[in-house]
Specification:
Layout: H1 4-19, H2 25-32, E1 33-41, E2 47-48, H3 51-65, E3 66-80, E4 89-101, E5 114-126, E6 129-137, H4 139-145, H5 177-194, H6 203-208, E7 211-218, E8 225-227, H7 229-243, E9 254-258, E10 261-265, E11 270-273, E12 287-290, E13 292-299, E14 302-310, H8 312-318, H9 323-335
Parallel strand pairs: 1-6, 7-14
Antiparallel strand pairs: 1-2, 3-4, 4-5, 5-6, 7-8, 9-10, 10-13, 11-12, 13-14
Length: 336
């Protein structure tokens, strides 16, 4: 069967969008999307159901602020949606949108220097059009590049994150379906253990069931990147479990795999309470959503790399903390 038609739609859409002038962006979105288009994005953009609104709310202001855009693509693959009984096809891409930060955006002041917005995106393709998009992007990661400190207590490393070490994740040609099934199988195995927090094993032993010892977890700003099972347990997974409780089950809208690449997203993926004061928050009893995209690279029969996009701004907002407004205000006050 293959996914060439769906991949072609997304590649042509990117080409048109990335080369459009500001006044032409709305027309591009309308050309490539269905009339009842659904667009899911991180705070402060959330859920939108109009291509014109998406253009005016996100794309035009962003492109006005970050100019001479280049799409630095690291991952591109497609697959049948495991979650959808009707067999929908989704295309996933991941990388950075690079440009010159020349005008304010969301209260973040420009640097006049190159900057990268880290992103991952899932597109549902129906009859040659994009019917749904999940576009998750790490705004705090961009803020750090611009000189802000939205999460000064971050445990993991901050860096502009590279793509897969093997440099083999741009699947413009369709991959062997057998390899995609292997990736789906190991994702399911990982979700059955890690996604429920109830394996009964010590954390590092649990992780070793589905992850290589020298795994790399490319986490969002606020958590950061970690390397090896031991440091991942110490710098993210352990504190994550200790700081949160009453986690719901895992829920996804799309879960796909092709070749050695796989990924999924939810709206939300799960809910939990920050009863342990996660990331410096006061302990509380609020049940909060986690909106997440995960992109994976499999090596052999285990997962080797994981790029993770969590809407940290939305998570903190649910706790009554507006990281975006607070950080940009502090920066403005310091510079006055």
């Amino acid at each position: 069967m293959g996914f060439q038609a769906e991949k072609r739609v997304v590649r042509e859409y990117y080409e048109a969008l990335d080369n459009a002038e500001l006044e032409g962006i709305t027309a591009v979105l309308k050309q490539y999307t269905v009339a009842d288009y659904t667009w899911r994005a991180f705070h402060p953009f959330h859920l939108q159901t109009s291509a014109e609104v998406v253009s005016k709310l996100f794309w035009q202001p962003f492109r006005n602020a970050v100019r001479h855009i280049q799409r630095r693509l690291d991952v591109f693959f497609a697959g049948d949606n495991f979650i959808d009984d009707s067999g929908s096809v989704w295309v996933c891409s991941m990388g950075h949108l690079m440009g010159l930060f020349d005008a304010p955006w969301l209260g973040i002041q420009p640097t006049g220097k190159m900057i990268m917005l880290r992103y991952a995106e899932f597109h549902k393709i129906v009859d040659g059009k994009i019917a749904e998009t999940a576009f998750y992007f790490d705004i705090p990661h961009l803020m750090v590049q611009a000189g802000y400190a939205p999460f000064p207590g971050q445990a993991g490393a901050h860096m502009v994150q590279p793509g897969p070490a093997a440099r083999d994740a741009l699947l413009f040609e369709d991959a062997d379906p057998v390899e995609g099934q292997k990736t789906m199988d190991v994702m399911h195995k990982m979700i059955s253990y890690l996604g429920q927090w109830n394996s009964g094993l010590p954390l590092e032993e649990e992780l070793a069931l589905s992850w290589h010892d020298d795994m790399i977890w490319w986490g969002p700003a606020g958590i950061g990147a970690t390397y090896t099972i031991g440091r991942y347990a110490q710098q993210h997974s352990g504190p994550f479990r200790a700081g949160l409780s009453e986690r719901s089950g895992t829920g996804h809208i799309a879960r796909i795999a092709e070749g050695n690449c796989g990924g999924f997203f939810g709206w939300p993926n799960f809910k939990a309470k920050a009863t342990g004061g996660y990331l410096g928050l006061p302990s509380n009893d609020k049940l909060c959503e986690f909106r997440v995209i995960d992109v994976y690279r499999r090596e052999g029969n285990k997962l080797k790399e994981n790029w993770v996009f969590i809407d940290m701004l939305h998570f903190f907002n649910q706790q009554g903390v507006d990281i975006l407004a607070r950080t940009t205000r502090i920066q403005t006050e310091l510079s006055d």
